[in-house]
Write a structure and sequence with these properties.
Blueprint (H helix, E strand, L loop, with lengths): L2 E6 L9 E5 L5 E5 L9 E6 L12 E13 L2 E6 L6 E9 L2 E7 L1 H7 L16 E6 L13 E6 L6 E5 L2 E9 L1 H10 L1 H9 L4 E6 L14 H14 L5 E3 L3 H39 L6 H10 L12 H14 L1
Parallel strand pairs: 9-10, 12-13, 13-14
Antiparallel strand pairs: 1-2, 1-5, 2-3, 3-4, 4-8, 5-6, 6-7, 7-8, 9-11, 11-12
């Protein structure tokens, strides 16, 4: 019966630690980084069959019987004889100007290409959003699919922000997953969140999936997860959002900043109305004349008023007019 065989790469300097052998034609050999595409598609480097170790140098990690292994167009469908993790594909593609091969499972294929299309509809309440990009941002978002314009300047916190009356009212810190992990390890993320928390609204957006935190090799995944949880508890007003891909992170940043600016405009308008109402209330708090005072003034002005009881509305009106003209 045909088998899929995975052996350790005898080259200690290679980052691709395993050799994958498939019985297609005279045999296909690839160098790869893991024994199965569980959490992400695995890059496979085609190798010469002569690299397959012989004799005592052969260290087989896994040998699995195959139900089928057939080439279909630019892919090789691989089905192994076991209950779980039994279907995968070797896909030939082209990227970065060269031919590339990836080993993917149905799960990693769905995660790598989320079936979404970012919307082009403008954010509500904003005709054209001006986004300030931090001067230190090396490869900034362009927001090309949205009604925006960008300006470069140094920001006190975050990588992208919006201003209201030259005041930074919201900011977003962008992170790739490797940058997120390194900033947790060296403590930079803790200081960044402290600066973001001083703004009215702020967030951190990560260009990857939360599940990839647990696929880290050079740092304990539990340490990263625990640090993220502790930072969110300490600064609950600065959410850390995992947006799967860079385009989705860019779209989330646009929507967040547009909503934050619209909210800041509303807060400003409400504040002005409240200030006006307070001044009116303060003016209305001036002491009001008593009925006896108005009665005495009316008699001095030659107006006929009763000795007791309420005064007519026109008497009060004439009193206010007379005293308003003297103020």
């Amino acid at each position: 019966m045909a088998e899929l065989v995975i052996a350790r790469n005898p080259d200690p300097d290679s980052s691709l630690r395993y050799l994958l052998w498939l019985p297609v034609g005279e045999g296909l050999l690839f160098r790869t980084s893991d024994t199965w595409p569980r959490t992400k598609a695995l890059y496979c480097h085609p190798a010469d069959l002569g690299e397959w170790p012989a004799g005592d140098d052969l260290d087989v990690v896994e040998r699995v019987a195959l139900r089928s292994c057939a080439r279909r167009g630019a892919a090789i469908d691989v089905v192994v004889d076991r209950g779980r993790e039994n279907r995968s594909q070797i896909v030939y593609t082209r990227g970065r100007g060269r031919d590339m091969v990836f080993w993917q499972s149905p799960r990693t294929r769905k995660q790598a290409r989320p079936q979404v299309r970012t919307p082009t509809a403008r954010a509500p309440g904003v005709d054209e959003l001006e986004i300030v990009v931090d001067a230190h941002e090396r490869y900034p978002y362009r927001f090309a699919s949205q009604q925006t314009r960008t300006a470069r300047r140094a920001l006190p916190a975050g990588d992208y922000g919006v201003l209201l009356d030259d005041t930074l009212v919201a900011s977003v810190e962008r992170k790739s997953l490797p940058d997120l992990v390194s900033s947790i390890a060296n403590g930079r993320l803790r200081f960044a969140l402290g600066e973001l928390a001083a703004l009215p609204r702020a967030a951190v957006v990560v260009e990857d999936r939360w599940s990839q935190v647990f696929a880290q090799r050079h740092v304990r995944p539990a340490r990263v997860a625990d640090s993220l949880a502790e930072l969110q508890v300490r600064w609950p007003g600065v959410p850390i959002v995992f947006a799967e891909t860079r385009p989705l992170a860019e779209e989330w940043t646009y929507r967040f900043l547009a909503a934050a600016l619209a909210w800041a405009h509303d807060e400003q308008a409400i504040g002005l109305r409240m200030a006006g109402a307070a001044s009116e209330l303060a003016a209305g708090d001036a002491p009001q004349p008593s009925t006896a005072q108005v009665r005495a003034w009316a008699r001095s002005a030659g107006i006929d008023v009763p000795d007791r009881g309420r005064l007519r509305p026109d008497v009060w009106a004439r009193f206010r007019e007379a005293h308003a003209s003297t103020e």
